[in-house]
Amino acid sequence: MILETRGIGKTFGSVLALREVSMSVRAGQVMCVLGDNGAGKSTLIKILAGVHRHDTGAYLVDGSEVHLSSPRDALERGIATVYQDLAMIPLMSVWRNFFLGSEPRKGLAFDVAKARKVAREELRAMGIDIRDVDQPVGTLSGGERQSVAIARAVYFGARVLILDEPTSALGVKQAGVVLRYIARARDRGLGVVFITHNPHHAYPVGDRFLLLNRGASIGEYGKADITAQELTTLMAGGAELEELAHELRRE
Amino acid sequence: MTVAADERVARVGLARRLLIRPELGAVVGLVAVFTFFAAQSPVFRSPDGIANWLDPAATLGIMAVAVALLMIGGEFDLSAGVLTGTSGLILVTLATRFGFNVWLAMLVGLVVALAVGFANGLIVTRTKLPSFIVTLGTFLMLQGINLGVTKAITGTVQVSGLRRAEGFEGANAIFAGTIEIGGTSFRVAILWWIVVTALATWVLMRSRAGNWIFAVGGNEQAARAVGVPAARTKIALFMTTAFAAWLVGSILALRYTSVQANIGIGQEFIYIIAAVIGGCLLTGGYGSAIGAAIGAVIFGMADKGIVFLGWDADWFKFFLGGMLLLATLANRLVRRYAEEVRH
């Protein structure tokens, strides 16, 4: 068990953002965190990533309890997070982005030649087809940006990859590309926490599924225990969906 | 697949690659302005003339380069101009009224300048207030201190007599002297400016800090998320600007041996304009130190060139506005090119 939470919770002022959530990720496993908007997904990953500190419960890395002080602290423990909207800096080149925050050094200098070369090689190794590592990231498509961010995390020895809605802004084809890299990271032995509100993206790649609603867990399932259909129904809150279907039915 | 990749690289093209260099606009401007003045004034293109217009370019350039780094990091410093005055006033006042050695007085000036830069950076990073407002506050406060303290000590609005202070000769030679090259004497400030520009360019392009500067200006949250120490980077940038202000303030104080209490007011915008002409985006995350240095040369040329041509110096302001508008328009095009998403 690389990463585990036990009854973790977080409040912002009078708002209970997260209550009693327990989950865990093993190496080579994809843990999907599903939930609608406001379910507490972002709060959970921000705790895992070291952005926020939890108020209650325990957060364990490699079996021992930790209180992460910053995203950098999380990174040093091998927990890398790829955010949906702020994964990359658009005006900077691919290689500058790739090494941002962990630049290789040569004496006092940033080893630019090495950075260019490694970025090119790593992207190719992950099967990512980037035209030119000197181009600004802003010229890449959304799927390409996510893929570069994943390749970066894998290269920097991440043991756990936390992906915040990596597919939500993408078209069907692009989402497929990103899911393939998630599977590839998993095959390389990484634990993956995959946050999404789309059960159709989660089910094919996930091993375990944690469902959140209004800040609390509504169940954790292994892939064997649940079908894609059940997952979708649970996600949407079964009764609500039926009600909606009733409401929308043609008279 | 390799064929497809090659095809797409070819489509990027050399023209586009050159176009997305931030300095391009400034280089074009430099050639145009030089040609314009050099064609009409033989003095302008003579070695003496060059030494003449490189001098204002140098003192402005040191500031513009530091301000460019800060702007790439996504912040402004409106107190930079007045801080040159504060540093100079501290130097001259301590050396002439309190019997300090010039070097010691400079050191005190440096400490105060760095403290102001640190305070600016700390307030901006802690409160998340726009640096425009924070440094506008420091700008007004320093302006008040400069005048108030100078008046209280001297009873006038200037301090002078640095020439008689101990250690003046040495400091003057290093910061405000001249160098003979081929029978023409160039101000040593030009050398400082070249050193500052080279160092800033190295930091920006070839150091980890440079990567962090682009990143905190481009998207601070994203930078923080991958472990860039954003607050430290920004504070260091404010301190760099303060250091430049101290350097320029000391150079000018040692050169003129006296300092007016209102010196530097209004210069802060000139620094920003030079940085923008040099390709810095007002929104941060993009720009160049060399560009800012070139922006400063364009200024120096126009400043002196207008005089060489015998025109009224008021036309300088008109020229300034025109250059600024053109540069911002060019930068907008560049940014659009760079950020254009292709699927």
Describe the protein.
The complex is a heterodimer of chains A (251) and B (343). With 251 residues, chain A is of the alpha/beta class. Chain A has 9 helices and 12 strands. In chain A, α5 packs parallel to α6 and α8 packs across α9. Chain A starts with a strand and ends with a helix. Chain B is mainly alpha-helical and 343 residues long. In chain B, β2 and β3 form a beta hairpin. Chain B starts with a helix and ends with a helix. Chains A and B meet through α2 and β8 of A and α1, α10, α11, α12 and α16 of B.
Mean pLDDT of chain B: 90
N/C terminus separation of chain A = 53 Å
Quick one: which chains have the greatest interface? A-B, 35 and 36 residues
Shape of chain B: globular
Rg of chain A: 19 Å
Order of helices and strands of chain B: HHHHHHHHEHEEHHHHEHHH
Strand order in the largest sheet of chain A: 6-9-10-3-11-12
Uncertain parts of chain A: none
- Counting DSSP H or I runs of 4 or more residues, the number of helices of chain A is 9
Q: Which value, in Å, is the CA radius of gyration of chain B?
A: 21 Å
Largest sheet of chain B: 2 strands, antiparallel
**Helix-strand makeup class of chain B:** mainly alpha
Rounded average pLDDT of chain A: 85
Question: Main β-sheet of chain A: number of strands, strand sense, barrel status?
Answer: 6 strands, mixed
Features:
heterodimer, A: alpha/beta, four-stranded antiparallel β-sheet, 9 helices, B: 343 residues, mainly alpha, two-stranded antiparallel sheet, 76% helix, globular
What would a concise description of this structure say?
Chain A is an alpha/beta fold and about 250 residues long. Chain A has 9 helices and 12 strands.
Write the topology of this structure.
The complex is a heterodimer of chains A (251) and B (343).
Chain A: E1 3-12, E2 15-25, E3 30-35, H1 41-48, E4 56-61, E5 64-65, H2 71-76, E6 79-82, H3 94-98, E7 105-106, E8 109-110, H4 112-125, H5 142-155, E9 160-164, H6 172-187, E10 191-196, H7 199-205, E11 208-213, E12 216-222, H8 228-236, H9 238-248
Parallel strand pairs in A: 3-10, 3-11, 6-9, 9-10
Antiparallel strand pairs in A: 1-2, 1-4, 4-5, 7-8, 11-12
Helix pairs in contact in A: 5-6, 8-9
Chain B: H1 2-12, H2 14-19, H3 24-40, H4 42-45, H5 47-72, H6 80-97, H7 102-127, H8 131-154, E1 158-160, H9 168-176, E2 178-181, E3 184-187, H10 188-206, H11 208-218, H12 220-225, H13 230-256, E4 258-260, H14 267-277, H15 289-308, H16 315-339
Antiparallel strand pairs in B: 1-4, 2-3
